[in-house]
Amino acid sequence: MTNQQNRWTREELILTLSVYFQLPFGRLNRTTPEVKELARLIGRSDNSAALRLVNFAACDPYITESGRTGMPAGMSVCKPIWDEFAGDKEKLFLEAQRIKAHLLNKPIEETLHLTQREMEGKERETIIKQRVNQTAFRSMILYNYEERCAITGISIPDLLVASHIIPWADSTPSQKLNPENGICLSALYDRAFDRGLITISPDDFTVCLSSALREYETQEYFDQHFGCIAGQQLIMPIEHQPNRDYLAYHRDKIFKGL
Questions:
Q1: Which of 48, 119, 135, 240 lies in the 20 to 30 Å Cα band around 165?
Q2: Dihedral (C-alpha) 51, 25, 144, 113: value to the nearest 10 degrees?
Q3: How many angstroms separate the Cα of 14 from the Cα of each of 41, 54, 76, 100?
Q4: What is the mean pLDDT of residues 66-88?
Protein backbone atom coordinates (compact mmCIF):
# COMPACT_ATOMS: atom_id res chain seq x y z
CA MET A 1 0.00 0.00 0.00
CA THR A 2 1.38 3.44 -0.94
CA ASN A 3 1.55 6.36 1.46
CA GLN A 4 -1.23 8.09 -0.52
CA GLN A 5 -3.51 5.05 -0.17
CA ASN A 6 -2.71 4.78 3.54
CA ARG A 7 -3.42 8.44 4.29
CA TRP A 8 -6.33 9.01 6.65
CA THR A 9 -9.29 10.78 5.10
CA ARG A 10 -11.20 13.63 6.69
CA GLU A 11 -14.21 11.31 7.09
CA GLU A 12 -12.14 8.68 8.92
CA LEU A 13 -10.75 11.31 11.28
CA ILE A 14 -14.21 12.72 12.05
CA LEU A 15 -15.51 9.24 12.88
CA THR A 16 -12.49 8.59 15.08
CA LEU A 17 -12.84 11.86 16.96
CA SER A 18 -16.53 11.13 17.62
CA VAL A 19 -15.53 7.80 19.18
CA TYR A 20 -12.74 9.49 21.13
CA PHE A 21 -15.19 11.81 22.89
CA GLN A 22 -17.42 8.90 23.91
CA LEU A 23 -14.72 6.74 25.54
CA PRO A 24 -12.68 7.22 28.71
CA PHE A 25 -8.92 7.48 28.16
CA GLY A 26 -8.34 4.01 29.60
CA ARG A 27 -10.53 2.40 26.91
CA LEU A 28 -8.60 3.80 23.94
CA ASN A 29 -7.08 0.45 23.08
CA ARG A 30 -7.42 -2.13 20.35
CA THR A 31 -9.36 -4.63 22.46
CA THR A 32 -12.23 -2.24 23.26
CA PRO A 33 -15.37 -3.26 21.31
CA GLU A 34 -16.09 0.30 20.20
CA VAL A 35 -12.54 0.64 18.84
CA LYS A 36 -12.86 -2.65 16.97
CA GLU A 37 -16.20 -1.49 15.53
CA LEU A 38 -14.60 1.78 14.38
CA ALA A 39 -11.76 -0.15 12.73
CA ARG A 40 -14.20 -2.37 10.82
CA LEU A 41 -16.23 0.64 9.70
CA ILE A 42 -13.25 2.49 8.22
CA GLY A 43 -11.43 -0.60 6.98
CA ARG A 44 -8.36 -0.29 9.16
CA SER A 45 -6.71 -2.52 11.74
CA ASP A 46 -7.76 -2.40 15.38
CA ASN A 47 -4.26 -1.23 16.27
CA SER A 48 -4.37 1.58 13.70
CA ALA A 49 -7.72 2.84 15.02
CA ALA A 50 -6.47 2.74 18.62
CA LEU A 51 -3.30 4.65 17.74
CA ARG A 52 -5.28 7.37 16.00
CA LEU A 53 -7.51 7.70 19.07
CA VAL A 54 -4.51 8.31 21.31
CA ASN A 55 -3.22 10.81 18.74
CA PHE A 56 -6.41 12.77 19.47
CA ALA A 57 -5.71 12.41 23.20
CA ALA A 58 -2.50 14.35 22.61
CA CYS A 59 -4.63 17.25 21.31
CA ASP A 60 -6.92 17.22 24.35
CA PRO A 61 -6.07 19.79 27.09
CA TYR A 62 -8.06 17.73 29.61
CA ILE A 63 -5.60 14.85 29.08
CA THR A 64 -2.38 16.83 28.75
CA GLU A 65 -3.13 19.02 31.77
CA SER A 66 -3.57 15.88 33.86
CA GLY A 67 0.02 14.86 33.10
CA ARG A 68 -0.86 12.30 30.42
CA THR A 69 0.40 12.72 26.88
CA GLY A 70 -1.43 10.48 24.42
CA MET A 71 0.62 9.91 21.25
CA PRO A 72 1.94 13.26 19.98
CA ALA A 73 3.47 11.76 16.83
CA GLY A 74 0.18 11.98 14.91
CA MET A 75 -0.90 15.42 16.10
CA SER A 76 -0.19 17.10 12.77
CA VAL A 77 -2.90 14.95 11.17
CA CYS A 78 -5.41 15.19 14.03
CA LYS A 79 -5.05 18.78 15.21
CA PRO A 80 -6.95 20.46 12.34
CA ILE A 81 -9.95 18.15 12.93
CA TRP A 82 -9.67 18.71 16.68
CA ASP A 83 -9.62 22.49 16.21
CA GLU A 84 -12.66 22.35 13.91
CA PHE A 85 -14.90 20.16 16.06
CA ALA A 86 -13.76 20.06 19.70
CA GLY A 87 -15.78 23.18 20.49
CA ASP A 88 -18.89 21.99 18.66
CA LYS A 89 -19.64 18.37 19.53
CA GLU A 90 -23.20 18.63 18.20
CA LYS A 91 -21.79 19.32 14.75
CA LEU A 92 -19.19 16.57 15.15
CA PHE A 93 -21.59 13.82 16.22
CA LEU A 94 -24.11 14.67 13.50
CA GLU A 95 -21.44 14.71 10.80
CA ALA A 96 -20.01 11.42 12.08
CA GLN A 97 -23.44 9.78 11.99
CA ARG A 98 -23.96 10.92 8.40
CA ILE A 99 -20.59 9.48 7.42
CA LYS A 100 -21.42 6.21 9.19
CA ALA A 101 -24.74 5.96 7.36
CA HIS A 102 -22.98 6.55 4.04
CA LEU A 103 -20.35 3.87 4.73
CA LEU A 104 -23.03 1.39 5.76
CA ASN A 105 -25.16 2.38 2.76
CA LYS A 106 -28.18 2.87 5.03
CA PRO A 107 -30.52 5.79 5.71
CA ILE A 108 -29.35 7.77 8.73
CA GLU A 109 -32.70 7.05 10.41
CA GLU A 110 -31.94 3.33 10.26
CA THR A 111 -28.46 3.74 11.79
CA LEU A 112 -30.11 5.66 14.65
CA HIS A 113 -32.86 3.03 15.07
CA LEU A 114 -35.54 5.67 14.53
CA THR A 115 -38.96 4.20 13.79
CA GLN A 116 -41.58 5.62 11.47
CA ARG A 117 -43.78 6.26 14.49
CA GLU A 118 -41.06 8.36 16.14
CA MET A 119 -40.67 10.42 12.97
CA GLU A 120 -44.38 10.86 12.25
CA GLY A 121 -45.54 14.48 12.17
CA LYS A 122 -42.13 15.81 13.20
CA GLU A 123 -39.38 17.72 11.41
CA ARG A 124 -36.87 15.16 10.14
CA GLU A 125 -33.66 17.09 10.84
CA THR A 126 -34.79 18.05 14.34
CA ILE A 127 -35.53 14.44 15.29
CA ILE A 128 -32.26 13.19 13.77
CA LYS A 129 -30.20 15.81 15.65
CA GLN A 130 -32.02 15.03 18.88
CA ARG A 131 -31.37 11.29 18.57
CA VAL A 132 -27.72 11.81 17.60
CA ASN A 133 -27.18 13.97 20.68
CA GLN A 134 -29.05 11.58 22.98
CA THR A 135 -27.10 8.59 21.71
CA ALA A 136 -23.70 10.27 21.97
CA PHE A 137 -24.36 11.71 25.43
CA ARG A 138 -25.65 8.38 26.73
CA SER A 139 -22.55 6.56 25.48
CA MET A 140 -20.27 9.22 26.93
CA ILE A 141 -21.86 9.13 30.38
CA LEU A 142 -22.44 5.38 30.69
CA TYR A 143 -18.87 4.52 29.66
CA ASN A 144 -17.55 7.17 32.05
CA TYR A 145 -19.47 5.59 34.94
CA GLU A 146 -18.55 2.04 33.89
CA GLU A 147 -22.19 1.41 33.01
CA ARG A 148 -23.53 1.53 36.55
CA CYS A 149 -25.75 3.89 38.53
CA ALA A 150 -23.66 6.38 40.49
CA ILE A 151 -25.95 6.02 43.51
CA THR A 152 -26.83 2.31 43.66
CA GLY A 153 -24.24 0.61 41.45
CA ILE A 154 -27.05 -0.99 39.40
CA SER A 155 -25.58 -2.16 36.08
CA ILE A 156 -28.68 -3.17 34.08
CA PRO A 157 -28.34 -1.13 30.86
CA ASP A 158 -32.09 -0.83 30.26
CA LEU A 159 -32.48 0.83 33.67
CA LEU A 160 -29.67 3.38 33.25
CA VAL A 161 -30.13 6.98 32.16
CA ALA A 162 -27.56 9.62 31.24
CA SER A 163 -28.91 12.41 33.44
CA HIS A 164 -28.11 16.03 32.66
CA ILE A 165 -27.19 18.14 35.69
CA ILE A 166 -28.12 21.41 33.99
CA PRO A 167 -31.08 20.43 31.78
CA TRP A 168 -30.51 20.38 28.03
CA ALA A 169 -32.89 23.31 27.49
CA ASP A 170 -30.99 25.46 29.99
CA SER A 171 -27.47 24.43 28.94
CA THR A 172 -25.12 26.57 26.88
CA PRO A 173 -23.75 24.97 23.68
CA SER A 174 -20.55 24.03 25.51
CA GLN A 175 -22.49 22.42 28.38
CA LYS A 176 -24.95 20.34 26.35
CA LEU A 177 -22.55 17.51 25.47
CA ASN A 178 -20.02 18.11 28.23
CA PRO A 179 -19.43 14.88 30.19
CA GLU A 180 -19.06 16.98 33.34
CA ASN A 181 -22.75 17.84 32.90
CA GLY A 182 -23.88 14.24 33.22
CA ILE A 183 -24.35 11.54 35.84
CA CYS A 184 -25.33 7.92 35.20
CA LEU A 185 -28.41 7.14 37.30
CA SER A 186 -30.95 4.34 37.37
CA ALA A 187 -34.44 5.34 36.25
CA LEU A 188 -35.95 6.04 39.69
CA TYR A 189 -33.12 8.34 40.77
CA ASP A 190 -32.90 10.00 37.36
CA ARG A 191 -36.56 11.00 37.70
CA ALA A 192 -36.05 12.17 41.28
CA PHE A 193 -32.99 14.21 40.24
CA ASP A 194 -34.78 15.67 37.21
CA ARG A 195 -37.74 16.74 39.37
CA GLY A 196 -35.54 18.26 42.09
CA LEU A 197 -36.48 15.69 44.72
CA ILE A 198 -32.80 14.88 45.21
CA THR A 199 -29.62 16.77 44.42
CA ILE A 200 -25.89 16.15 44.67
CA SER A 201 -23.88 18.45 46.93
CA PRO A 202 -21.23 20.38 44.98
CA ASP A 203 -19.08 20.37 48.13
CA ASP A 204 -18.65 16.64 48.73
CA PHE A 205 -20.73 14.87 46.04
CA THR A 206 -23.21 13.46 48.57
CA VAL A 207 -26.91 12.88 47.98
CA CYS A 208 -29.34 15.36 49.55
CA LEU A 209 -33.07 14.73 49.89
CA SER A 210 -35.56 17.55 49.37
CA SER A 211 -38.15 18.65 51.89
CA ALA A 212 -40.78 17.67 49.31
CA LEU A 213 -39.48 14.10 49.33
CA ARG A 214 -39.19 13.96 53.13
CA GLU A 215 -42.95 14.47 53.35
CA TYR A 216 -43.12 10.75 52.54
CA GLU A 217 -40.68 9.55 55.19
CA THR A 218 -43.41 7.81 57.18
CA GLN A 219 -44.22 5.64 54.19
CA GLU A 220 -43.05 2.05 54.22
CA TYR A 221 -40.97 2.41 51.05
CA PHE A 222 -39.13 5.60 52.09
CA ASP A 223 -36.18 4.11 53.98
CA GLN A 224 -35.67 1.35 51.43
CA HIS A 225 -35.47 3.70 48.43
CA PHE A 226 -34.62 7.16 49.74
CA GLY A 227 -33.66 7.23 53.41
CA CYS A 228 -30.83 4.81 52.67
CA ILE A 229 -29.18 7.15 50.12
CA ALA A 230 -29.31 10.38 52.16
CA GLY A 231 -25.74 11.57 52.70
CA GLN A 232 -24.32 8.82 50.51
CA GLN A 233 -21.42 9.81 48.29
CA LEU A 234 -21.64 9.26 44.54
CA ILE A 235 -19.71 6.43 42.93
CA MET A 236 -17.29 8.63 41.00
CA PRO A 237 -16.63 8.25 37.26
CA ILE A 238 -13.41 7.16 35.57
CA GLU A 239 -12.95 10.64 34.08
CA HIS A 240 -14.80 13.97 34.13
CA GLN A 241 -16.29 14.17 37.62
CA PRO A 242 -19.50 16.22 37.88
CA ASN A 243 -18.79 19.91 37.54
CA ARG A 244 -19.26 21.63 40.91
CA ASP A 245 -20.71 24.79 39.31
CA TYR A 246 -23.28 22.68 37.44
CA LEU A 247 -24.21 20.88 40.67
CA ALA A 248 -24.59 24.26 42.38
CA TYR A 249 -26.97 25.31 39.57
CA HIS A 250 -29.03 22.16 40.12
CA ARG A 251 -29.13 22.75 43.88
CA ASP A 252 -30.11 26.42 43.52
CA LYS A 253 -32.46 26.27 40.53
CA ILE A 254 -34.01 22.79 40.44
CA PHE A 255 -33.75 21.21 43.90
CA LYS A 256 -36.86 21.66 46.06
CA GLY A 257 -34.97 22.52 49.22
CA LEU A 258 -33.73 20.80 52.36
A1: 119
A2: -10
A3: 12, 14, 15, 10
A4: 92
